[in-house]
Amino acid sequence: MTQVRLPRGAVSRMAADGARTMIKRAIAIVLLCLIYRGAQAFSRLRGRRPREQGDGRRGILLIGTFHNPNWLYAHVEPIARSGCGPVRLVCDEPVGEIPGVEYCCPPVWAQRVFSRALAKLFAAVKAMRAGGVDLVMGYHVFPAVVIALVVARAFRVPAAFQVTSGELELEGGGWHAENRLLTALGRPSAAVERAVVAMTREFDLLVVRGSRAEAWLRRAGCTNPIARITGSVDYPDRVPGFAERQYDIVFVGRLTEYKRPDRMLEVLKRLRAAGREFSALVIGDGPDRDALVRTAGEAGLEPFVTWAGQLADVPAHLLEARVFLLTSRWEGVSIAMLEAMACGAVPVVSDVGDLRDVVTDGETGWVLDGDDIDGYVSRLLPLLEDRGTWERLSAGARERARRLASKPLVAERWSETIAAVRDAFFTRPVSVTSGRGTTDA
After folding, report:
1. Is the pLDDT of residue 14 over 80?
2. What residue ranges do the domains of the chain occupy?
3. How much is the pTM?
């Protein structure tokens, strides 16, 4: 057998890269464990003692990162419409206007000097000092959720954690995320997972998108109150029929590995190999766009795929599509999927997150193993060729989206949930946390 010898310089570079990766991972593990354990310790030190009686009408402080206006409208607007008081939003920069929502964004110079995380912490403290807040809620575990817990305990109000991505947000320490410190983990870390779960147990409310995330949290030992609330969508009164729709397939998502757009292209290739012509619309942008466009061109898909980029009016384009294709390896409950279902597009999606809570095979769409490319094709073909099949599943998808995610219903769920967590926090006996548990004082 011929042995392949690498140049000495290449071997040295590979060894150096490996060493740097190990060092970055070690630093990330230490930092994350210190941050999560520190937040847990601070929460226990302060205890769940209310500062003052809540009246159910004061404001809510939300902390997170919102790059996508559609994501903001889906999650924040129903809270603003819940009747639970004005909303103050700490994020990097304003991304859309919502009645009842006030932005509390740190200045750009503070983000550059102190880092985005510390700048958000300072902005959150400033917002709390202004008064009128009796619930703090964070999105995405690092850093927003950590900040939410620390600030809530410092000002003696309840803390809530929106577990937006389900168990993947915590599993293995959250190494799946795109955050630079979390991605430095490179692979799962049991130590970081234990630390972040321990911190998660300190929250007065956990909000998940579905049953799989809730079951994972319970298995991890979280006894906190858990509410299942999806994002919200606008529900059109009328939608076009099969023949009125311009596109056979629509894909919506950031063009990055987490959404697995490469799988989407493989599905389209197999459709063409089966002799099927189609029109596909790809909505979204990201670091993999150029490579994907090249791959599509090399595969002869250029006449069949429209690359629309980032769009502000996504629902208007979802009304033009028959099928919504999702190939992600990581989701909670996809807002784009819920929007598509409300618009009558039939979802054909990967079995990730809590999508099975929404999509019932043969009734509202199809859920498949993400790597089963032939399975995607076998489900797509009848939807594109049989109008009756499409109409039946389209009607089922519309009804499911209305009952699960229409904005008035989601706002009502938030109203009930926020009222319950406030009442429980501000009316419970003062508790003292010891090493053996919690006792009433």
Report:
1. no
2. 21-231+409-429, 247-405
3. 0.87
